[in-house]
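Predict structure. Chain length: 430.
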Amino acid sequence: MPRRSARQAAAPPASTRAAKRAASPRQTPTRQSKRSRAQSSTATPKESKYFERASQSAQEEQQSPEPSDAEASTGNEDSGYEHKSEVEDATSLESEDDAISSEEEVKPKRRGRTSKVGAVAVAAKATSKKGNELWRSGVATGLSPDKQLIIKKPKAREAGNTPYRDDTIHPNTLLFLRDLANNNDREWMKMHDPDYRQSLKDFNSFVEHLTEKVIQADDTVPELPIKDVVFRIHRDIRFTSDPTPYKTLFSAAWSRTGRKGPYAAYYLQVKPGASLVGGGIWNPDKTALERLRRDIDRHPERLKGVLMDKRVRKGILGVDSEDENKVIRAFIEANNDNALVRCPAGYDIKHKDIALLRLRRFTIVKGLKDSEIVGTGQAAERVGGIVADMVPFITYVNNVVMPDEPASESESESDSDDGDEEDEEGEAEQ
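Prediction complete.
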């Protein structure tokens, strides 16, 4: 028996070979790995267009036989044409290179040390626009890393020949308020913070000195800390169309609860050309306003008697005449800015005191000149005297709006008497 290897080595018979299917003429493409494809696509750079003609001409020369004399002239002409195009392409490249180099010469270099004069010019240009002050972080000054820009810290104005005193307002305070009115923004305030703090300190010292005189004039006003008396200079701009962030004045108010509360208060305002001393209740709430109108309706002689007081009539309202109508008219004109156009609900339009009932503000005001509060030692005396003249009016408003227990009992008795009279009249009519 032959060996297995010999049987495998023996050729198959012809019939078996003919029965096998013929091989397909299509060739299966060999797979190429991604890495080899990427290398083949990136390894060989694409030839430039300026070398295509040269390579093609070299191949043609190798394949074509040597031309004859007649064909040589034609070949020279073709080669001359090709040479001309190549010269034009080279010329265009040179012109483009010249244009690029000329543009680079015109444009300034981005990276380079800036000269001192150029740095100062760039810094001045950066600070020319509003909001680009050099004190802000992240502002480009144009200075090189080895250069520093030093800005001196602002200082408050010097006092000059007029010293700061507790019984008066210094002229620098009014000067600061004038500048603030012309530059009412946060950037300017930050740069002039020393002036603001010095002016606020001057006003606070004057208020502390004036508090003693207010307490002497009206013993119902307690001695409160300065933070409960002085108003902030920042404005509330949430519900107004005016975007200015600061008030252009300093102000303070004294009452039984300080600058806030339901009681009538004494008010001081320091503003260039518009300083004043006021007293009363500025915007009473609904309950307080109803009490004032009810008192005017039932007992109008109380308010009229206070207004006819000499201190109020002559010292505050500035009416020398003792005519009651003139005094009432002066008081109404001082509070007629936000008065009702129609009569309030529950009152007849033909009421004899309808003009007083229409009021929604009950205040008295005395204006001050700048010379009366600045630079003289009589400023505290002047303001204290005006506060003393307002005491009768403030006392009346507080007794009506926030009455004490004895006053409320007497008022309830008077109201009950009025009710008994009305009941008797009703019984008589029946």
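Summary: Residues 73 and 402 are 125 Å apart (CA to CA).
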